Amino acid sequence: MPPFVSGSRVTIHDVARHAGVSHQTVSRVINEHLSVAPSTRQKVLEAIETLKYQPNQAARSLVTQRSGTLGIVSFGLTYYGPAQMVVNIERAARLRGYGVALTSIPELSEGEIERGLLELRKQSVDGFLLVAPLRGVNTERIRSLCGHTPFVLLDAAETGGTPGVTIDQMSGGRLAAQHLLDLGHEHIALLSGPQRWHDARLRLEGWRAALTHAGYTPVSVLEGDWTAASGFGLTQELLASRIPFTALVAGNDQMALGALWALHERGVAVPSDVSVLGFDDIPESRFFHPPLTTVRQDFAALGALSLAALLEAVESPREAQALPTRVLLPELVVRASTTSPRRT
């Protein structure tokens, strides 16, 4: 492979040489032709990423009759989960040669969704991705607003037959509770996220299901708002109630962080006195004191799968209508914040 001179403008021929294919093959990959073998497509995409090649979007649009831009309407970008979904969608889109236009809406209401979709339609996007983590989203109304433009729902409670991608939150809740049960805990308190978020509701259902199956009920169930401050306040409330508990499950890692500090302030040792378990596996969770046992969500896979679902809908809309919702399974990450309860 001839050396590539850094700083020069990367061309389709540079990509072809780097990948060891013809420039026609590179063109077929860029223009989403289905005749390219998956291994060859992957080599070309890796070469595009390595060389930072930017396809000529104007020329590509003339060939494909597409803008090469995908629209994202998202709610809740101040929270870790939705923010990670958008970041990973953008990364996956860039690897496939697409740009992304983003509209963040302040509330997940029909009016705000309509405003976001209409704003993106002005940019002639090829498809929409909607991050919709709240309950009660009207998929039929979204379908009407999108018209003939394909769309995919992410993290939605119900997709109404529309292509969608989600993470099995109830399974994640079961994993968390079962880990504590396997350690021998019987007195478990639950600090849930806001129940208008279907993720929080499903995690709580998963916790309850695991406990019920084992013949236990939670000693306390309190509802927070995803923040460390709410985890701190709820744990203070729980301690003040004098209800005995040996383990605490938090709706996310931020709430677990607040719980850890509240326990520390009261001289309650983690995990020897109380085990604490979170959800999400944010990058900082392994640096908590002690490092946090949590449930990991694979947001990179979510981004890649959601993009693949949308591109299928863009290229083959009739086939895409029959695609089921794609579900990813979360994973338990065991660290130092959980252990077996003391025996008295």
From TrEMBL:
Keywords: DNA-binding, Transcription, Transcription regulation. InterPro entries: HTH_LacI, LacI/GalR-like_sensor, Lambda_DNA-bd_dom_sf, Peripla_BP_I. SMART domains: HTH_LACI. CDD domains: HTH_LacI, PBP1_LacI. Gene3D superfamilies: 3.40.50.2300, lambda repressor-like DNA-binding domains (1.10.260.40). SUPFAM superfamilies: lambda repressor-like DNA-binding domains, Periplasmic binding protein-like I. Residues 10-64 form the HTH lacI-type domain. One of its GO terms (molecular function) is DNA-binding transcription factor activity. PANTHER family: LACI-RELATED TRANSCRIPTIONAL REPRESSOR (PTHR30146), LACTOSE OPERON REPRESSOR (PTHR30146:SF153). This is Transcriptional regulator, LacI family. It comes from Deinococcus hopiensis KR-140.
